Amino acid sequence: MTETRVHRTGSTPMCDREHRKRRAPRWALVCIFAMAAATVVTSAPAGANHGVDSIFPSANYQGGDSDCKEHSVSGVCLADSRWHTVYAVALGSKMQAATVFTLDLSYDTTDINVIYHSTSQVTYSGSWETDVIYSNSNSLPSNVWGRNRCDDDSPGGGKCDQFYVLYHADKFDAEIPNDTTLQRAIACQETGHTVGMLHGSNSDPSQADTSAAFRCMRTNPLAAVASMGPHNINQVNGQY
Ligand SMILES: [Zn+2]
User: Fold this and answer.
1) Cα of 142 to ligand 1 centre, how many Å?
2) What is the CATH number for 160?
3) Residue 102: which H helix or E strand, with range?
4) What is the whole-number distance in angstroms between the Cα of residue 197 and the centre of ligand 1?
5) Residue 29 C-alpha to ligand 1 middle, in angstroms?
6) Structurally, how many domains does the chain consist of?
7) Which residues on adjacent β-strands are paired with residue 222?
8) Average pLDDT over residues 196-222
9) Measured in angstroms, how far is the CA atom of residue 31 from the centroid of ligand 1?
10) pLDDT, tens digit (0-9, with 9 covering 90-100), for 105-135
C-alpha cells in the first residue's frame, strides 16, 4: 500500500506526546453522519453558544457515560492532549486537501496544536501513537460520508490514544467530486469528533443538530459549512 502523508508547507514534523500506558487495541465506530444531501447555509452563524456544553462527556451523550467507548457505534472521545498528531494514508488529492484545510485553518487556530507525522514518524502501537489516522473506506454504508472511531482508550479519563477517521471515497467521487465546501465540512466534522466535539443534540443542554452555532458540526442534515465557528472554538479551548 502506498502511504501518503498529509503535506503542509513549512511544517516541521515533531512529536511531543504525553507518556502513557497502553493495552491491546480494540475498535469502536463513531459518528455516522448519514446525510445524503447538503443544505447550503446562507446566513452568518451565531456566535459562541454560552452555557451549552458541546464537548465530551455530556449528559446527553451515551447516557452521560464519561468513558471513551472503543466498541460503541457512537463513541466520540477526548484527545489525549492538545498535541494532535495526524497522518493520512492515500486519501487522494481532494480529501487530503480538505483535511489539511480543516487542520490548518480551523483546528490549528485553536489551543489544539496540529502536528503532521511523516511516514517515518507515524506510529500505530506503543505509548507514542499518532493521534489521528485518516484513510478511505468503501465499506461504509451507502448513506454514510465518514466515520470516526477510537482504537485505544487506554489513557482513561474519556481520552483516546488513537483515532481513525474513515472517508467513504466512492461516495465522495460519485456525489460530491467537486464540492470543496462539503468535502471540507466532512473533514472538519470528523476531526471535531477526535477532539471530543459533539453534535447539537448530544450537547448539554441539548440543541438542534442543525443549530447554526455548530458550524461544521451541524448534522441531520450535514451542512455545507467548511470551518469551525466561535462556539466550537470556545468549547475546544475550554477543554485543551
Ligand atoms: Zn458527526
Assistant:
1) 16
2) 3.40.390.10
3) helix 93-105
4) 8
5) 12
6) 1
7) none
8) 96
9) 5
10) 999 999 999 999 999 999 999 888 999 999 9
